[in-house]
Design brief:
With 387 residues, the protein is of the alpha/beta class. The protein has 19 helices and twelve strands. It is elongated, with a radius of gyration of 26 Å.
């Protein structure tokens, strides 16, 4: 596995050619310095760049020039001055490049559009591997770290089924539900993306190291708003949850206690106008309290994965049926007969005429489809699909 670690994290040559700054241009270097100013909020950093005409111009302003703008406090002016002394722009930028980490400030086109319009969007993202495809609908799956085996199984099945339908899975790499959903997606060869509460080069928890490497060896990615090398701290995790929900079209909570980080993610999703679903749980089970509370508050109930995919519009009825048929390994004639039918009864002579198959072949195909509960005979020699 070791030789595959960075396959997914290398920046494609064509992207590098379009983004010469990644090869050493000044603009992104100064944005990288700006991103390091954690004691100034994301919003004030964005506004500062607009007021000053860019991060490099801000970096080069004297203290008196900053004061004349009447925007910065004395504390901020002092902080910026000290940061310029202690931040080696060339050296820090080279270290970032050596780690093959992509730096995406909000000023760049590659910065995810789904993050731009949320409350308090990250000033920048650090990415190993890929970003979620903006053209694809995606689902965030979150839940308890100390989950039950039932919850772990549901999360894994959900991740696997979503991946089988080409739906990217977003989560947070934590042990329990998060890791199970990532693993499920990977088992089906799908795309999955982890948003960390540490630097994207710091695998947390360490027990998820194999999962971290497997995500990067495929076509997924590891994302963070925190600078490389940043160690996980409790205050980082609630903030990263807004990114998880923002990158997804739908958020699913599998298991959660009444007070948990998963409910913070659900709250962020609601604030962002996203759909929230919860897996219902047992009465008086502490791991079900959070999910049952969400359902009481109006969240969708996820009791059947295919119904969930259909009802959210993530996958169409025809796509779901195609996947079912693929699993059944239907013969060419059986698939042809099935595709010829709809939900209105059709006489067998018409099936024969439209498929071009002979009577015996059609009868064998219909018999097989009936046994698989895909087709029913409504009355003699009239057949239709089963809803």
């Amino acid at each position: 596995m070791g030789e595959n670690v960075d396959r997914g994290s290398r920046m494609p040559e064509d992207v590098a050619a379009e983004r010469p700054d990644m090869e050493g241009g000044n603009d992104l270097k100064y944005e990288y310095w700006m991103a390091s100013l954690y004691r100034i909020s994301d919003n004030r950093r964005r506004q500062s760049c607009l007021i000053c005409g860019g991060a490099e111009k801000l970096y080069r302003l004297s203290e008196n020039e900053m004061r004349r703008l009447h925007y910065f406090t004395e504390e901020e002016i002092h902080y910026i001055r000290e940061s310029r002394k202690g931040f080696d722009i060339e050296g820090e930028w080279e270290r970032l490049r050596q780690k093959e980490i992509r730096f995406l400030p909000c000023s760049q086109e590659e910065y995810p559009a789904r993050l731009r319009h949320i409350y308090d969007p990250p000033y920048a993202l650090y990415v190993k591997g890929s970003l979620p495809d903006a053209a694809k609908k995606s689902v965030a799956v979150v839940g308890a770290r100390a989950c039950s085996e039932y919850g772990r199984g549901v999360a894994r099945l959900l991740g696997k089924t979503l991946a089988e339908h080409g739906v990217p899975v977003i989560s947070g790499l934590a042990i329990g539900i998060d890791s199970a959903s990532h693993a499920g997606a990977l088992s089906a060869g799908g795309d999955t993306f982890a948003v960390l509460g540490s630097g994207c080069d710091v695998c947390y928890p360490r027990t998820s190291a194999n999962l971290y490497l497997n995500i990067l060896s495929g076509s997924g990615g590891i994302l963070s708003e925190l600078a490389p090398g940043t160690q996980p701290l409790p205050q980082f995790f609630p903030r990263r949850n807004r990114i998880i929900s923002a990158l997804a079209d739908v958020v699913v909570v599998v298991e959660a206690k009444k007070r948990s980080g998963s409910l913070i993610t659900a709250d962020c999703a609601i604030d962002q106008g996203k759909d929230v679903f919860a897996v219902p749980g047992r009465f008086r089970d502490s791991l079900s309290e959070g999910c049952n509370h969400l359902i009481e508050q109006g969240a969708g109930i996820l009791y059947d994965i295919e119904n969930f995919l259909k009802n959210t519009g993530i996958v169409s009825d025809s796509e779901i049926m195609e996947k079912k048929l693929d699993k059944l390994s239907l013969a060419k004639e059986e698939r042809l007969v099935y595709s010829n039918l709809d939900f209105n009864p059709k006489f067998i002579d018409m099936i024969i005429e439209e498929t071009g198959l002979n009577l015996l072949t059609v009868l064998h195909a219909l018999d097989f489809l009936k046994k698989k509960q895909l087709v029913q005979e409504t009355f003699q020699n009239y057949f239709c699909k089963i809803l």
